[in-house]
Design goal:
Blueprint lengths: L4 E2 L4 E6 L5 E7 L9 H11 L16 E3 L3 E2 L2 E2 L4 E6 L21 H8 L15 H19 L2 E9 L2 E2 L21 H13 L5 E8 L13 H10 L4 E6 L10 H4 L2 E3 L2 E3 L6 E2 L2 E2 L4 E7 L9 E4 L5 E4 L14 H22 L12
Antiparallel strand pairs: 1-2, 2-3, 3-7, 4-7, 5-6, 8-9, 8-10, 10-16, 11-16, 12-13, 14-15, 17-18
Length: 361
Amino acid sequence: MSGNTFGHLFAVTNFGESHGPAVGCVIDGCPPGLALSEADIQPDLDRRRPGTSRHVTQRNEADAVEILSGVYEGQTTGTPIALLIRNTDQRSKDYGNLLDTFRPGHADYTYAHKYGVRDPRGGGRSSARLTAPMVAAGAVAKKWLQLNQGISLKGCMTQLGDLPIAFESWEHVGHNPFFAPVADVSALEAYMDALRKSGDSCGARLRVVATGMPVGLGQPLFDKLDADIAYAMMGVNAVKGVEIGAGFASVGQRGSVHGDALTPSGFVGNNAGGVLGGISTGQDLEVSVAIKPTSSILTPRPSIDRQGQPTEVVTKGRHDPCVGIRATPILEAMLALVVMEHVLQQRAQCADVRASLPRIA
């Protein structure tokens, strides 16, 4: 199976299956000299970890990361960094009835036709379990970007199912299981409690932002910064839509409104989401992501078996009724990996160009 490596200069190769012994990744291209330990990575994995509230899957994984290589005496050496996260709470018997049937909305049907064989336990490689290694890799990129570029990443939920979430403050995000930027999440809790009782699922909309961005990251044609962001986000399980800046709302805007005017003191607005012509403007990167409802639900649904005969599917096991609840740290990680890649590209190609040009705020 190809397509398991993300990035080129900061390349992350993802491995493992949902119910295998472990998942993990190998990071190739991390600059040497970065102080790094498991303690730098674990907090982001804890934010993504299953079993953290009644609103997510009750699979109880510690998601404890192990650094196997690439770090000596507490610093990165410039050689590949291998990160391992052991699976300790698999319950494969929950998937025993799915070997010969296809779950609607899941990758079972397409995997079986592409490869002729599939691992039905938790979805195998199609499981959101495989986002854990990307969060680990993203934590490494986050630390390097913060220390060397002053770039920070943050995200939040802006809609749960058909329930919009008004933005109050970033300070609330870390104090509730939804990563919601509001002080009172009782309405969200009631919504999820009713949803879980119904045996159904819902989607979510999330926002992720990179602050402290420099001007000039990205290429003007096929390696546009915003194109790479969209590519990264669409690589995350269950993502069905990506917006940069105003996104689809720009359809209803006039050019006189959408184009962010420039003044000596800075841009007036950020409809562009921090990217013009595929190149960063120095403003915050603003990304919005739509996540579909979880495909594995208790509600009976019609499907077919491997012989093409009609059947009914009920997916048992421990599943997130909304995978978007734990997606914020995943999207932060993927944006960090994109920015890291483009910072290294810029450093290699144009490191001495920007010093002679004026910069607006």
